[in-house]
Design goal:
This protein has 367 residues and is an alpha/beta fold. The protein has 13 helices and 14 strands. The protein is elongated and about 60 Å long. 46% of the residues are buried.
């Protein structure tokens, strides 16, 4: 006889909670039990216990603390690719400066995304904050799972050999050399940027500006780590600085970044503010793309990459109307195919490319 309850459970997203704090383990579990389609298969008080329990519990996703005894979250992330089937992780991050640096490392190691631990003594407020942060990420991860599949470690192949570039560039498209590159990116961003930015040459010849959805304090560490492995100079953008060629400017988390005209003809500078925009994103890709289009018109390249939602679509529409070129990351290599999907379906994209070929496509537009 088929157990219908057991069959139903197989369709649930199986989650293992890993945190050395009993309070957080319980709080996260209480939140997850309120979400549809989720099954908490267990908890672990440190990374070693989590790794030991993977073969038995067979989770699809870990809710993973970073700072733990015995085996920390970074060590767990390094061990996950060795497991027989793909397991994702959403990282729990603190507010300290050290936490932001470690969180960026976790994202580079393949964590799906991160949430900040609520800093409140109120249990109800903590649960509300956790639910608001976790629910959309879990839903996005669930949507990605059919694409990822349950591949064994032996079946997982390097990105470049697994996919081919898909070009939808229209024949006869007029080519104007871009004088700036603007990138909008969210979930999966740090890992993706760690592939694209180091591939760009030292003599790219134009500035690159990036809106990466992140809270305050995290983009500084992201820029610092990218700078250490890139031929270009990578920095967190500062208000009032002049845009320079061969420099990558990452908008500071929790703020907006736009490009405005300088005092001299042809000069453009960075402006950082706290403007509110539709969707509430700070930094907002729409906000950045629109400002770039206003200043550079057809001499701009917009790049839209992995992320949830549709931030960037309206800004790219404006950029397209001004004659700019649009590059989108393809579905196969996007951690979340949201931000690239909307402009793709709206007919705004000139070239759709896998992650490992985006840098090459950027170079084509500036040379």
């Amino acid at each position: 006889m088929i157990n219908s309850s057991a069959t139903l459970q197989k369709n649930f997203l199986r989650i293992l909670i890993v945190d050395d704090s009993a309070i957080y383990r319980k709080t996260v579990r209480d939140v997850l039990t309120t979400l549809p389609g989720v099954q908490v298969v267990g908890t672990a008080c440190d990374g070693r216990e989590a790794i030991d329990r993977l073969p038995i519990l067979q989770p699809d996703l870990l809710i993973l603390d970073i700072d733990m005894p015995m085996m920390n979250g970074l060590e767990v992330l390094k061990a996950l690719p060795l497991h027989p089937h793909a397991i994702g992780a959403i990282v729990l991050s603190g507010l300290a400066q050290e936490s932001s640096e470690i969180t960026v490392k976790a994202l580079e190691l393949g964590a799906f995304d991160f949430i900040q631990k609520p800093q409140t003594s109120s249990l109800s407020h903590s649960m509300t904050a956790l639910s608001e942060s976790l629910a959309p990420l879990i839903e996005a991860y669930r949507a990605k799972m059919p694409i990822q599949g349950r591949l064994s470690a032996q079946e997982r192949v390097p990105l470049k050999s697994a996919i081919n570039r898909i070009s939808i560039e229209k024949p006869g498209t007029r080519r104007i050399r871009s004088a700036i590159v603007a990138i909008g990116i969210s979930t999966g961003g740090p890992q993706a940027l760690n592939i694209v930015i180091p591939q760009l040459p030292a003599d790219l010849g134009v500035p690159v500006v990036i809106a990466q959805h992140m809270p305050s304090g995290f983009t500084f560490d992201l820029a610092k780590r990218l700078n250490g492995r890139s031929a270009l100079t990578v920095k967190e953008a500062e208000s009032g600085e002049k845009l320079m060629a061969n420099t990558v400017y990452i908008g500071p988390g929790g703020n907006q970044m736009r490009i405005v005209a300088g005092k001299r003809i042809g000069e453009t500078i960075v402006e950082i503010n706290t403007d509110s925009v539709e969707g509430g994103y700070r930094p907002s890709a729409d906000y950045l793309f629109t400002s770039v289009a206003e200043q550079y018109l057809s001499r701009a390249t917009g790049v839209i990459m992995t992320g949830m939602g549709n931030d960037g679509t309206q800004g790219l529409r404006f950029l397209k109307e001004k004659g700019g070129r649009i590059i989108a990351q393809d579905e196969k290599t996007s951690v979340v195919y949201g931000m690239p999907r909307w402009p793709r379906e709206a007919g705004l994209v000139d070239v759709e490319a896998p992650l490992d070929q985006i840098a090459e496509e950027i170079c084509r537009t500036v040379r």
